[in-house]
Design a protein that fits this description.
Blueprint: E1 2-4, E2 13-15, E3 36-38, E4 45-49, E5 56-62, E6 68-76, E7 78-82, E8 89-97, E9 102-109
Antiparallel strand pairs: 1-2, 3-4, 4-7, 5-6, 5-8, 8-9
């Protein structure tokens, strides 16, 4: 089939080859994985608590520029992270649970 150009006023037409694509696209919605962390701001340690009946399998820490500072595989519903080597500033903590869902929160290092 032939379709008119999407630019108005152009005398060109463009060929459309192949089967038409469906107009509807769907994405499976994931249930949010919410975890809590304390103390925030952190000094030497940061405690991460998974929701009830969930386990944390890994975490990554990113600086404010998006550079990954550290990553660790863990297994538990309460994880303690040593933050004493981090410079003062804002960081992002990305946590993965045992259902392979990710969630990210900000924390501040004093």
């Amino acid at each position: 089939s032939w379709r008119e150009s999407f630019l108005k006023g152009t005398p060109m037409i463009r060929p459309v080859v192949g089967k038409p694509l469906p107009d509807i696209v769907s994405v499976n919605e994931q249930v949010a994985f919410e975890f809590s962390l304390y103390p925030n701001p952190a000094e030497a340690t940061l405690h991460v608590v998974a929701p009830e009946n969930e386990r944390i399998t890994s975490y990554k820490i990113f600086d404010s520029y998006g550079k990954m500072i550290s990553q660790q595989s863990v297994n538990g519903s309460l994880v303690t992270i040593n933050t004493s080597r981090l410079a003062p500033g804002m960081y992002l903590l990305q946590v993965c649970d045992d259902n392979h869902r990710f969630s990210t929160q900000k924390f501040i290092k004093k």
